[in-house]
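hi! just following up on the protien thing from before. the input was this:
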Amino acid sequence: MSAHQQTAPCASSAAGVAVLPLKPSAELDDAQTRSRVLRQARLRHERARAQAAAPLPPDDAPAQVIAGAAAGALTKTSVAPIERLKVIFQTQGMRDGAAKYRSPLQSVRLILTEEGVRGLYKGNGANCLRVVPVYALKFSLNDTFTEAAARAQAQANGAPSGAPLPPLGFWTKIGAGSAAGVIQITLTYPLDLVRTRLQLAEAAGASYRGIAHCLRDTYTREGATALYKGLLPSMAAGVPYVGLQMTFYSELKAALGPHLPTRPDGSPTVLSMLVCGSLAGISAQTICYPLDTVRHRMQANGIGGQARCAVAGAAACTRMVRHTHNAPFAEYMPTRGTVW
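and the predicted 3d structure came back as:
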């Protein structure tokens, strides 16, 4: 035996390296490829989460508002026929006589026969017009209130001028968002009322030539306060709806996540998020739906200059609706498409 052959095992033993059988090169290549793909996917996911969490630079704010408004207009247009059916079912109990609209399918056929395809989209123009100020006010007011709350917290903590603003707590963020929502709803509410009245004009025997005419007619016949009929139940439903939807979504994602498909990096797929988001939206909508019915009945009261119910105020309208045959969950089925 040569000297080299005698010392090689000793060197290997001294180095403490275990001698293992080598895997075929094809298996090594597959394992390395899978590892590299998973590592790249994980890096992309972490980068996307960091970008989503980071605040947008000021130059991106207009682009964000435009993109959000365009997406909102497209979404509202796609569900406009379902939204009109919902409002019709919620309010037809205010009229005397037999119900004209008995089911979603029968109602669609009746609207197409009497009003054509455009009848399914009545009020959608006001709804889309409302999207732009809603998104603009939502982002700008929320940022303003959030920054003001952070500055107040820094001042209370005795932070020096120019120091980085402290992170806000959960309830502080909720308060800032709710304050922004109250102002946004108040400023854009007349367009919401116009949308409802345009949707109900044909069924209520009223005639409006467009958004501007509906605004003028409502103001002339009923006064400026009529433009805010149903504002209180709208605010009472809007704030808890968002909170309930986000809470349900988080709980459903935690409970159903292990049983739903995931990406290679462990993040939920689009289908998983769609399932959790749909169930969360339906649950939140079900809880807040009675106030939505009250809001639309208050908006419809007085349409075309004719009072539809002899009550005033959200509380009185709620009591009246509770005793009717189809409320407060009047025809809930058509609304499901609006929350998915």
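Confidence is low (pLDDT under 50) at residues 1-20, 50-56, 325-340.
The CA atoms of residues 236 and 291 lie 7 Å apart.
cheers
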